[in-house]
């Protein structure tokens, strides 16, 4: 980085953000607090105009800092995404005993950006962002559907002898409710509440169908072929692409595997060589890879052959499944890179 470039660290909050500008040596030269409103971007860029050679570093550009990071990127500013875990470590290692304040947090963000060369560059939102939003919305709908089903199960258990079997659906619940003949006011109220929940369940089911259709369109617009991999449907493909984003930020398949939590962690000590399970990484991606691995281990195909080979090597089913997940991480990484390169070539 050129010595004249100023790094501006931003600690975002819901109602305010604090910015600290540091020089190439990491020394703070100016700081300012901004209230978050319609004029925040203009005020921030006006203040930053004092340093023509500048770049911004935003803590959590995929979370609380998404708004200001996207606004800065949209007006052509160079913006880096600093994970909160890195800025916390930088603050704890700094002088001052790790005391926390907004200016100290913003300073830590800037210093992390100054010395780390592997931070993600924030780009304008694209189809991957749309897929992530749709995936997160589907998760919310699925959780709401589970809550409604649990409530409906409880009422049906009190209305129908023996209750309702597992795997309850709107059609099955409606058929059971048609057999209910309440004999008391309390039972009549339970039936009415069950009907309301049934209407809610049908509404959620329709929204889930609409969400899947939107995800399918977004996948087509992104030019993804992930669904060609056995075990990867529209829902999982949307989740994977939404959380991965620009796959080029992972220089190798090994780095991608570390991000997905499928690469075992080295826990060697002295002459003892061992690895332990990685419980970190992006757990949404890890869960998606687990689902794919279960499907491939069960059904005929290359994944099943690989899984069975691990079993013959005296691996436990869980260990064989984890090995398959690690291999699937490589497969998905290469497929996403190939798709993005093809789309970029077609757009050129």
- pLDDT averaged over residues: 92
SS content category? alpha/beta
Tell me the Rg in angstroms.
26 Å
Largest sheet: 6 strands, mixed
Distance between the termini: 29 Å
- H/E series, N to C? EEEHEHEHHEHHHHHEEHHH
Q: Approximately what portion of the residues adopt beta-strand conformation?
A: 5-15%
* Largest sheet strand order: 3-2-1-4-5-6
The total domain count is 3
List low-confidence stretches: none
Number of helices: 12
Shape: globular
Could you give the count of β-strands?
8
Structure description:
- By secondary structure, the chain is of the alpha/beta class.
- It has 3 domains: 6-121, Nucleotidyltransferase, domain 5, CATH 3.30.420.40; 127-222; 228-347, no CATH class.
- Helix content is 57%, strand content 11%.
- It contains 12 helices and 8 strands.
- It has helices at 40-48, 66-74, 84-93, 102-115, 127-159, 170-177, 185-222, 234-244, 253-260, 283-298, 302-312, 317-347; strands at residues 6-12, 16-22, 28-35, 54-59, 79-82, 120-121, 265-266, 275-276.
- Strands 3-2-1-4-5-6 form a 6-stranded mixed beta sheet.
- A hairpin with a 3-residue loop joins strand 1 (6-12) and strand 2.
- Helix 3 (84-93) packs across helix 4 (102-115), helix 5 (127-159) packs across helix 8 (234-244) and helix 7 (185-222) crosses helix 8.
- It is globular.
- The two termini are 29 Å apart.
- 30% of the residues are buried.
- The mean pLDDT is 92.
